[in-house]
Design a protein that fits this description.
This protein is 51% helix and 17% strand. It is of the alpha/beta class and 228 residues long.
Length: 228
């Protein structure tokens, strides 16, 4: 079977990370969490005291920022230079900050180049919000994963560590704000690609969603083979 490039887009809390990792493991592919890259930029900016409208300082920051994924103890870690920032970027505050920085053209341009480099060899599952529409419109398979706001808030609330706990209402409010930011931004807004396969994960487990994706890939692959 030829190596495939697969994209999975969708809003916060839809289950993209879990499903993308599982699908990548099933296929023996690399998993790339592109949202973590934007969180990495947000972390670096906050750490350096760079605010979002300081374009010159932001450009200098990006010139000197090296983000890369490494495998460590059977998990994928995000490094900013020599610093492992995987856990530090997983906070509600960093999520909202990443959404704001992702709307900056210079940030998107820099990370677009990095993502293209990562996808060149295929055999990868890319998770994000504009993977199938902007970054990899030529992807072999595109999925758009969604779920109701209530279900997404419940999932995100359950993921929060005890020391980071917010009220469920605050988590839901943050997700709704993130949705509005992602869908209304002028550059690469969150939306499904025209040829994406839609899955509403509200009533399904991650394993069931992955099975649907595998079946779709198998069915389309067989159909393409018959038509050649």
């Amino acid at each position: 079977m030829k190596k495939l490039l697969i994209t999975i887009d969708g809003p916060a809390g839809a289950g993209k990370t879990t499903v993308s990792r599982m699908l990548a493991d099933c296929l023996g592919y690399r998993y790339v969490d592109t949202g973590a890259l934007y969180r990495g930029v947000a972390w670096a900016a906050q750490n350096a005291g760079v605010v979002i409208d300081e374009n010159d300082r932001l450009e200098k920051l990006l010139d000197n920022l090296k983000l890369e994924f490494i495998r460590k103890n059977q998990s994928t870690r995000l490094m900013a230079g020599a610093t492992d920032i995987t856990d530090q970027i997983r906070t509600p505050q960093m999520s909202l900050l990443a959404s704001a920085f992702s709307a900056k053209p210079i940030v998107r341009a820099r990370l677009l180049s990095l993502q293209h480099e990562m996808g060149r060899q295929k055999a990868a599952v890319f998770e994000g919000r504009d993977m199938g529409t902007v970054v990899f419109p030529e992807a072999d398979f595109k999925f758009f994963l969604d779920a109701s706001l209530t279900v997404r808030a419940q999932r995100r609330f359950a993921e929060l560590a005890p020391e980071k706990k917010q009220s469920f209402e605050k988590v839901a409010e943050d997700i709704k704000l993130r949705d509005n930011n992602d869908k209304s931004r002028a550059i690469a807004p969150l939306r499904p690609a025209e040829d994406a396969f839609h899955i509403d994960s509200s009533a399904f487990s991650a394993k069931e969603v992955v099975t649907q994706m595998q079946n779709h890939i198998a069915d389309k692959t067989q159909s393409d083979l018959k038509s050649t």
